[in-house]
Design brief:
single chain, about 475 residues, mainly alpha, 17 helices, about 0% strand
Length: about 475
């Protein structure tokens, strides 16, 4: 069930009405309704994988209690590693087994040893990377004594399976979400209105921006051999807006949906394409995942403490693991490696924390420098996205080679021609709206909100009808 589908448009109001207008409204009944809705929501993808979600929930629930009740540090550590190993094992089998086997086979073939690998014909369970990380953060926090284990199984199950964030995040922390599930929620009209605005703006990002850009990005990447430099550059830019509109749009819909139920989720995007350097970009992009790796991998490795070598090592580990988390392909690892290279000069020169303040632009030289830094950061980000989008490393290198050697900058015809000139104008409008919305709750809130709301709905309907691209990119991760 997609957020941008008719099924969800029917599903959400039904759950909303049951949630707020049940005869015996209590915290327990609210949670029961949400967990039943969450399991139904997940079963719409493939009901057979419900057992995996339930098993992961049971494993983490009982492991946390055992860790807390253990008498010795050794027992605590044993339970921690049992739980972590099983979780990572399931993730490894479903997501990475074929990758490792195929890569090892290619290595043997390179030495002239030809083998017939045993590959698994399995489907990647949607959302497995996200709900696995939900559970792991909970278990690790229990181990280090940051929180107490949750004894109410329904409350904990809802924390893991809460449908707005189940399949593509944000990656929630038990310290933030569980306390909200432990109390009865009261309806707040203003919060619900904010939620509706956020849902609609998320749909604009997905249907109007991401899906429109996807038509062109797919055309250009799939036919890169016949594209000139201008088209290839535009293809990278279109994909940059596609993945941002797609993923931040999903997060906005998730956050807005959750507000309808009186629950706040973590902010996942903070206008990342207005970043002044790559360090600031990663503080603003996919915030829940970035902070997860920071807290549960980077800091335990030593973080930015120790020698320069250790700082460099930890930086490359965090970016490579982040790339590999996104998918079982060398292109994602290359994408992570490139971002680590971008980050390295800032780290070595101790400038990775320079741009943590908010800023305004004016008619002066410092503003010109800020604009230049934003454009450079966006350009190198688009370059790295080429590896993220390409199917193989060879495809990415071929794309880049043609982009820098063709040197033809004429307009080309696309077989999906629908918004040839309008798409560039539309993206410029989108950038202006995003820029003006940095200090607002939502872009369509405030003065003339209902007029903007109506315009957004009209754009969603008008472009959504013609959209050829429906799925969210991050469902594959």
């Amino acid at each position: 069930m997609f957020f941008n589908s008719l099924d969800f448009a029917i599903f959400l109001p039904i759950v909303f009405l049951l949630y707020w207008f049940m005869p015996n409204k209590s915290k327990a009944s609210q949670n029961y309704i949400l967990i039943l809705a969450s399991y139904y929501f997940y079963s719409c993808w493939d009901w057979r994988f419900l057992f995996l979600l339930v098993f992961s929930t049971l494993l983490d629930y009982f492991s946390a209690i055992q860790i807390e009740n253990s008498k010795t540090q050794l027992q605590r550590k044993i339970w921690l590693w049992i739980c972590v190993s099983i979780n990572i094992g399931f993730l490894g089998v479903f997501k990475y087994y074929n990758f490792f086997v195929a890569s090892f086979t290619d290595l043997l073939n390179g030495f002239g040893l030809h083998t017939s690998p045993l590959l698994l014909k399995i489907i990647l369970p949607v959302g497995i990377s996200f709900y696995t990380f939900h559970g792991l953060s909970y278990i690790i926090d229990i181990y280090y004594g940051r929180i107490k284990s949750e004894k109410n199984f329904v409350d904990y199950s809802l924390f893991v399976s809460y449908f707005p964030l189940l399949v593509a995040g944000p990656i929630e922390r038990a310290t933030h979400l569980l306390p909200q599930l432990k109390v009865k929620r009261e309806f707040n009209f203003e919060k619900a209105k904010e939620g509706i605005y956020q849902i609609v703006w998320g749909l604009v990002k997905k249907v109007v921006i991401a899906d429109t850009c996807a038509n062109y990005a797919n055309e250009i990447f799939n036919h890169s051999g016949s594209m000139n430099s201008l088209s290839l550059i535009l293809g990278a830019v279109y994909f940059a807006f596609q993945i941002y509109g797609d993923f931040s749009g999903y997060s906005d819909i998730a956050l807005g949906t959750s507000k309808l139920f009186g629950i706040d989720l973590l902010k996942n995007f903070n206008y990342p394409y207005f970043s002044r350097d790559i360090a600031e970009f990663w503080r603003r992009w996919h915030i829940s995942l970035t902070t997860w790796f920071r807290d549960y991998l980077y800091i335990p490795l030593g973080g930015s403490k120790g020698s320069k070598w250790l700082k460099v090592r930890n930086t490359f580990i965090i970016f490579l693991v982040s790339g590999f988390w996104h998918g079982a392909n060398w292109t994602f690892i290359a994408w992570g490696f490139i971002n680590a290279l971008y980050f390295l000069p800032l780290l070595l020169l101790n400038r990775n924390r320079n741009n943590i303040d908010e800023f305004e632009l004016g008619f002066n030289f410092p503003s010109l420098r800020i604009i230049f830094n934003i454009l450079i950061t966006f350009a190198i980000t688009c370059f790295a996205w080429i590896f993220f989008r390409a199917k193989t490393i060879h495809d990415a290198l071929f794309y880049i080679k043609r982009m820098f050697t063709d040197w033809h900058f004429s307009e080309q015809y696309f077989t999906i021609e629908r918004y040839s000139y309008e798409i560039v104008f539309m993206l410029l409008i989108f950038v202006v709206v995003e820029w003006n919305s940095r200090t607002k709750i939502e872009p369509i809130s405030g003065k003339y909100s209902w007029l903007k709301f109506g315009l957004c709905l009209a754009a969603i309907v008008a472009l959504g009808v013609f959209s050829d691209y429906k799925e969210f990119i991050y469902f594959q991760f």
